[in-house]
Amino acid sequence: MSINISKTRVMSYSRKTNVLLYGYQLCRTAITRTSCVKDLGVFFDSKLHFHNHVAFLYSECIKLLGLIRSITFRFSSLDCLYVLYLTLVRSKLEYASVAWNSITSTDSAKLERIQKKFASVCFYRYFPHSSYSYTSALERLRLHALSLRRHLLDALFFIQVYRGLKSCSSLLDNSSLRLPTCHVRDSLLLAFVPQKDTVPLLGAPLLPTWWVKISTYLHTERFL
């Protein structure tokens, strides 16, 4: 399979003011240098601030929210509006959040404004006689702040890596946790004997109690 040079880009990741840049070539053709690239739906910038990704998410989701608000103007059911928001808007706001959740508080507040707009629309339409506040609206609509959900998704990802359900060796290397040796061969072909400090039938180390509570909570219908 040949490489399409016109679609190939080079980018240097660094937060230094003066970055040493080198002109790379492929088949004697200079590769175009860029400061931002889109990979699997996420915009990665050279400083990994993800400002471009947040701006893209805000632009797309605020348009979708405006469309939902227009087409549901005569809807009498809150559930329909709720499902449209979860399916079309919040799913985009949380896509691959583990990769870009290192955003600044300013960008986090910018994304939170989208859910605040949705909460205010629902509250004034279906609860007109109640005083509005974002906190009370979240409780009434059974929603959580987007920033909290992203942190919980980070915790869920770490637990899945810790239990061997997902692979991320760099995350394990940076954590001060001792893990049992991971065998490459299919465990179904071998007789399984639980280790002393492992969870029965899982073969993973015991987690702290609060981690187990987070993992259980993240799999409940209320969070999903």
From TrEMBL:
The lineage of its organism: Eukaryota, Metazoa, Ecdysozoa, Arthropoda, Hexapoda. PANTHER family: REVERSE TRANSCRIPTASE DOMAIN-CONTAINING PROTEIN (PTHR33332). This is Uncharacterized protein. It comes from the Eukaryota.
